Amino acid sequence: MSLIPKAELHLHIEGTLEPELAFALAERNGVDLPYAGTDALRRAYLFSDLQSFLDLYHGLMAVLHTADDFTELADAYLARAAAQGVRHAEVSFDPQAHTERGIPIGTVIEGLAHALDRAEERYGVSTRLIMCFLRDRSAESAMQTLDAAKPYLHHITGVGLDSAEVGHPPSKFREVYAAAESLGLRKVAHAGEEGPPAYVREALDVLGVERIDHGLRSVEDPELVERLAREQVPLTLCPLSNVRLRAVDTLEDHPLRAMMDAGLLVTVNSDDPSYFGGYVGDTFHAVREALGLSQEQLRELARNSFRAAFLDHDEARRERCLAEVDGYDFDRE
Ligand code: HPA
Ligand SMILES: [Zn+2]
Q1: Interval between CA 271 and ligand 2 midpoint (Å)
Q2: 13 found inside a domain
Q3: Global confidence as pTM
Q4: Predicted confidence (pLDDT) per residue in 189-216, tens digit
Q5: Is residue 333 part of a domain?
Q6: Which domain holds residue 123?
Q7: Which atom of ligand 1 is nearest to the CA of 193?
Q8: CA distance readout (Å), 171 to 15, 141, 162, 273
Q9: CATH number for the domain including 17?
């Protein structure tokens, strides 16, 4: 595990649900899970692609009912993240995955915000909340979700786009992103995870996003790589996720290092750490080993995470974190 100070920018809070907490919440809420126990559940984490993961992932969310459940989920993540060197976390959530099950959006947002708002004091982790739209649902459903979130916008920094990518291009959400922008929200989107480089271009040109979540398949398009490098568009890579969801064969084959060499502003993140085999400190360690990254390259990844963070209203914190990265002593590891 690498303890270098870092920001985590690509993290789905529902993807931090560990089997033990899932079973505890299932019992508390009277939910029957179709697994004999935590070991059997972990054994089911063998995915062939994004969709096979999403099916299990959405099934397990059935255990989350009350605001307290969401608070407990977020607290567990923040404590683990802090223990892995995270100083700043931008936490995504999927409101539609819960409202479709009859959980009010206010329950979800207020439950998460309760944990996030006290995280700096409790864990030394500053936080932001990013509300993602499920791209395999309609644009109307996304717009209704944005509308329903209006009483809670003081808790929300930005919007994102996730779930099944292929066949659901960013342009489907043009109006929703325009509406989000007019509400003062920041904009990110998953693109180029399983979808083509053209989706990365659309996310930039049609939605006007400031960061691309994943962006992995950008490497197939040299002109796009040149643009992303020139414009220093942050890409929030998730190497362990890419291995588990079969976007790359092995970690050794991951283009992270080549992307750094091409001058891209890449960051390393855990995506859904309970499902993909590691939190972000584990991920830093794994890519260091698999790709033979130098200490200076790990420092660059950590620096990039703070440069790409939505810390515009707290530049002093960004500077402090960057100074901590510069002074980090790898002999501690
Ligand atoms: O990796 C992902 N991709 C798309 N949607 C997701 N929702 C959780 N994780 C992911
Ligand atoms: Zn993701």
Answers
A1: 5
A2: yes
A3: 0.98
A4: 999 999 999 999 999 999 999 999 999 9
A5: no
A6: 6-326
A7: 3
A8: 26, 15, 14, 29
A9: 3.20.20.140
